[in-house]
Design brief:
Blueprint lengths: L1 H10 L7 H8 L3 H13 L3 E5 L3 E6 L6 H5 L11 E4 L5 H8 L8 E4 L20 E8 L10 H16 L4 E4 L3 E4 L2 E13 L2 E12 L25 H22 L3 H9 L7 E6 L2 E10 L5 E4 L5 E4 L5 E4 L4
Parallel strand pairs: 3-4
Antiparallel strand pairs: 1-2, 4-5, 5-9, 6-7, 7-8, 8-9, 10-11, 10-14, 11-12, 12-13
Bound molecules: ligand BTX.
Ligand BTX binds next to helix 5, strand 5, strand 8 and strand 9.
Length: about 325
Amino acid sequence: MRSEIIKILLENKDEFVSGEHISERLGISRSAVSKHIKNIKNQGYDIESITKKGHKIFGCPDLLSGGIIKHDLNTDFIGKEVIHFDTIGSTNDYAKEIAGDSIDGTIVVSEEQTKGRGRRGKEWHSIKGDGIWLSIILKPDIYPHKAPFITQIAGASIVKSLRNLGIDASIKWPNDIIVNNKKVSGILTELGAEIDQINYIVLGIGMNVKTMNFPEEINSIATSIFKEGYDVKRIDILKNILEEFEKLYLDYTERNDKSSCIKICKESSAILGKKIYIINGDKKRKVKCIDINEEGNLVIINEDNDIEELISGEVSIRGEHNY
Ligand code: BTX
């Protein structure tokens, strides 16, 4: 309810909105409106309340809360329902718990994660207020074997959004976004499915936005948007990602069209034309990347000069020099 009130105040941000108007629009009592407004102010929103005039919003705290995300969000279904936490273990874990009862496109965001996860149980550092720790619940009508491509759609939409905002980012196929050779964002796609039917996909996106000091163990590989000299707000990045993601996602799930996504992945690739290491378990081999094909698979030339195709998710990749 609070997020709906914030949304109404933001829609009318140049004027006072009466308690009566809010109570009628949301079907709640005037005293409930007053109580919610008090709580909203306690969260750090700058709202002036004048008897007989109503409430006017002047400023929002730097929070990724539902009302702020939904305001002017240009999507059909992604982010229509927002669940926002101050702190949580992992947004992906929570999203998986509620996926069955949630509407398609519901997003879960938290200011902090205490048990953020990367792939194969690796830790994902998620410092309070510093980044975007986001999960999107998706219920596409596609076969389970087509789900891994959602990771590439996420990668393409993240890099496109960052580029829209003037940030020179690239994709290290299939799931890392890098800026100046360091990792700024990672993607963790998880699937709840039966043999021939997807129940849900939880798409997890982590992005370092304001972090200046990273824990020692990732300091040499991780960076943030601010650290690389870009002063862009978390909320602007997040909304841009949701909008770009929805377009590419609908191309794929409704029209079976991967072309725009693959075009972005190729144009923004950090590894095409370069030598990389492919790590599979404890095996490491040096190969050259030559293409991302129509299926979204990475085409490489191996040590014996044979051409191979890699499917996303089956390997880890390290660049010859860092990334
Ligand atoms: P990944 O397995 O590709 O990357 C994990 C590795 O990245 C770690 O082993 C570590 O080396 C490095 N790393 C850890 N934290 C950071 C960081 N903050 N910045 C840069 N590098 C780091 C990538 O997995 C997928 C990450 C998804 C995170 C999102 S956040 C919202 C959602 N909830 C959740 O628990 N995970 C996802």
